[in-house]
């Protein structure tokens, strides 16, 4: 299963617990996204998902839904978790960005590393990308 919904919930909680305002960066063109289109810029929209800004927030494993007001007009928002490109705090920008492709393909196994371990002494670390 994707770790994205779990990370979204955890970071939302961390931001909220610290008295800051959680915002979602959403790919507005993703399939299944129901948002007010007049606020979309460059195919993306930023949504304030703080407890004081939305009602009935549901950060589910597959879908995120809530009710909110946009320019005074009430609207129900529905979006697949895969459309979320990031979650961050408005106040300090801390949070997490996610890759745009929902199904991140793990790198192919390149087999064991044939490099012999360094001789003697201290252990070493190797950066794996």
What are the key terms here?
mainly beta; 7 strands; globular; SH3 type barrels; single chain; 3-stranded antiparallel sheet; 1 helix; about 10% helix; 4-stranded antiparallel sheet; about 130 residues
Strand and helix order: HEEEEEEE
Q: What's the end-to-end separation, in Å?
A: 22 Å
Oligomer: single chain
Q: What share of residues are in beta strands?
A: 25-35%
CATH architecture: Roll
Tell me the CATH superfamily.
SspB-like
State the share of residues found in helices, binned by percent.
10-25%
What strand order characterises the main sheet? 2-1-6-7
How many strand segments?
7
In short:
The protein is mostly beta strands and 129 residues long.
Secondary structure elements and pairings:
Blueprint: H1 4-17, E1 22-27, E2 44-48, E3 55-59, E4 63-70, E5 73-80, E6 84-89, E7 95-97
Antiparallel strand pairs: 1-2, 1-6, 3-4, 4-5, 6-7
Plain-language structure description:
It is a single chain. With 129 residues, this protein is mainly beta. It has one domain (4-97): SH3 type barrels. The chain is built from 1 helix and 7 strands. The chain has one helix at residues 4-17; strands at 22-27, 44-48, 55-59, 63-70, 73-80, 84-89, 95-97. The strands form 2 sheets. The chain has a 4-stranded antiparallel beta sheet with strand order 2-1-6-7. The chain has a 3-stranded antiparallel beta sheet with strand order 3-4-5. It is globular.
